[in-house]
From TrEMBL:
It is found in: Cell envelope. Residues 311-549 form the Heparinase II/III-like C-terminal domain. It holds the Pfam family Hepar_II_III_C. Transmembrane segments: none annotated. This is Heparinase II/III family protein. InterPro entries: Chondroitin_lyas, Hepar_II_III_C. Its main location: other. Signal peptide: none annotated.
Length: 558
């Protein structure tokens, strides 16, 4: 039942070592920055950045303070690139120049000159030597996209010398990325690199052959990474939104400049939109599965306003491995999938059969999500089963993470098969039953979860039970404490009714009663990793198994 058996693990380890050798060889050549056919002499278009602009951030940067990645760096009169940076995440944000979008809030000549001086400092200090955080491929991709998108601010009234330095540095960065992109590990960074190269090819008036090649390579990566149901193959809902932020401006730039749009680009964008709507709660927030953290409502709305596909959200994303149950204003989203490859499991969460519940304008039951700016320890803690609204045996995750020197924290064991049964009841309600084998190897049991919701969306019935691998009920518990956890959103107040019942009350007065027929319902302290402002305290409900199954119910109060 191993997700990655020993032989496959050795094969992956060797392949990763070879990939790193090829990558090192590609970028260690003396000509890796200075040579190549890609030459940028002028920028002819600035693709639109759809992300929200914050005038406060712009004002802070103009005053020498950089508020990035949850930290603030006060530079005084010094360049930020000469100082010790507060964190690795801060460094990536600083060198990625995504913060340039905020400078659009005040495009006076003086402010543009100040912004230009920061870019010039980077070119002088980091432009000539491809090393360190500044030249991580994902950071380079983001910097290329940011420089192109905000070139009207950076190049406003620029003197000829700076213009030449700017375009020369862009050329170097694109050539560097071209050398590296084929050896990047699979996932969003490789696709972002393809987007950056394609964007540079049309925004900087590259030769027609370079434009066509960049489009072909982008098409190939889009087809590989965006699944037929529109979800990204990392299974992270937020990845789909991040892709739209880059693909929509790229698509429009192709059209505005009269280039042939890569054949896959428009169909892929049309596929992604239904997946984004699928993961969107009734509150407007995005679900927190497999590495997602809370998105700003303004960011989500800025991409959704370009949605031309319309229609109701799908009931399931079969390729991504998710189900959506809905009734009235109530939405339940359930993770019924597994990582699509061993390498992708390095960022996946052990949350199989976890679910989230929203109603009206509120999220009630959630997963803890992934922290936006925290360190590696907390990121790995957020991946555990205990950080998800599902069952956990002995605080052991359903997927075991093994940190490999080359491969990173991949899932060495975990669910290999998830069975799903979906039915519509005679009353118009919806029923989902799913089971996974992630605990078979260690404890000899299968976890099965059943969720029912009525057509009106005001009554939910749930059951979690342990089965033998052959599907028969087990008479005994597995020798370790079995706990079902339900993480409650920090905005929700929990009011105790009795030992088996609590009331979940939202700030606007909407409420649900959570109850169990037998046993004891505990309310314990919790943490919410994914808040936009950082990690927050929260609470969770816990039900300890006293037999092979538990039942739980939710009732909405009108």
């Amino acid at each position: 039942m191993r997700f990655v058996d020993r032989r496959k693990l050795v094969t992956l380890h060797v392949a990763e070592g070879w990939r790193r050798l090829r990558l090192a060889a590609a970028v260690s050549r003396p000509s890796s920055l200075s040579s190549g056919s890609f030459r940028i002499t002028r920028v002819i278009v600035a693709p639109t950045d759809l992300r929200a602009v914050d005038p406060f951030v712009a004002e802070e940067i103009l005053n020498g303070r950089f508020p990035l990645a949850g930290r603030v760096l006060d530079t005084g009169v010094q360049s930020p690139f000469t100082l010790e940076l507060p964190s690795l995440q801060f460094a990536r944000r600083l060198h990625g120049f995504g913060w340039l979008r905020h400078m659009r809030a005040n495009k006076t000549a003086d402010n543009c000159a100040h912004t230009r001086s920061i870019v010039d400092q980077w070119i002088a200090m980091h432009g000539g030597r491809a090393a360190g955080v500044a030249w991580e491929p994902d950071v380079v991709s983001r910097r290329i996209i940011s420089w192109l998108s905000h070139s009207p601010v950076v190049l406003h009234d620029a003197e000829a010398g700076f213009y030449r330095r700017f375009t020369a540095s862009l050329s170097q960065q694109v050539r560097y990325l071209q050398r590296r992109v084929g050896s990047l590990p699979e996932g969003l960074p490789r696709l972002t690199a393809r987007i950056a190269i394609a964007m540079a090819s049309i925004a900087a008036e590259a030769r027609p052959t370079a434009v066509r090649r960049a489009g072909r390579m982008l098409d190939r990566e889009l087809e590989r990474q965006v699944l037929p149901d529109g979800s990204h193959y990392s299974r992270n809902p937020q990845a789909s939104v991040e892709l739209l932020f880059d693909l929509l401006p790229l698509r429009q730039s192709y059209i505005n400049l009269g280039h042939d749009v890569p054949p896959k680009l428009i169909p892929v964008v049309d596929r992604i939109y239904p997946a984004v709507r699928f993961f969107r709660h009734s509150s407007g927030d995005l679900a927190l599965f497999n590495g997602a953290c809370s998105s700003l409502a303004t960011d989500l709305m800025s991409v959704l306003r370009y949605d031309e596909t319309a229609g109701q959200p799908f009931k399931a994303l079969p390729h991504g491995g998710y189900h959506r149950l809905a009734g009235g204003e109530t939405i339940i989203l359930v993770d019924t999938g597994i990582p699509l490859s061993a390498r992708l499991s390095a960022t996946a969460h052990a949350g199989c059969l976890s679910f989230e519940l929203s109603s009206g304008r509120n999220r009630f039951i959630i997963n803890s999500g992934s922290p936006r700016f925290a360190g590696e320890r907390l990121r790995q803690l957020a991946r555990t089963t205990a950080a998800h609204s599902t069952l956990c045996i002995g605080d052991i995750s359903s997927a075991q993470i093994a940190r490999m020197s080359h491969l990173g924290p991949i899932m060495a064991t975990g669910p290999s098969r998830v069975g799903v049964d979906r039915q519509t009841g005679p009353d118009g309600g919806d029923r989902l039953s799913a089971r996974h084998d992630g605990y078979v190897e260690r404890f000899g049991v299968v976890h099965e979860r059943e969720i029912r919701i009525n057509e009106q969306g005001n009554k939910i019935a749930g059951r979690d039970r342990l089965l033998l691998p052959d599907g028969l009920p087990t008479a005994n518990l597995p020798g370790a404490e079995v706990v079902a956890r339900f993480h409650i959103h920090p905005s929700i107040t929990i009011e105790r009714a009795d030992e088996r019942k609590v009331r979940l009350v939202a700030p606007d007065g909407e409420s649900w009663t959570f109850s169990i027929p037998v046993g004891q319902l505990a309310v314990t302290e919790d943490v919410f990793f994914a808040d936009v402002s950082g990690i927050r305290q929260s609470q969770q409900l816990e039900i300890v198994f006293e037999g092979p199954e538990i039942r739980w119910f939710l009732a909405h109060h009108a």
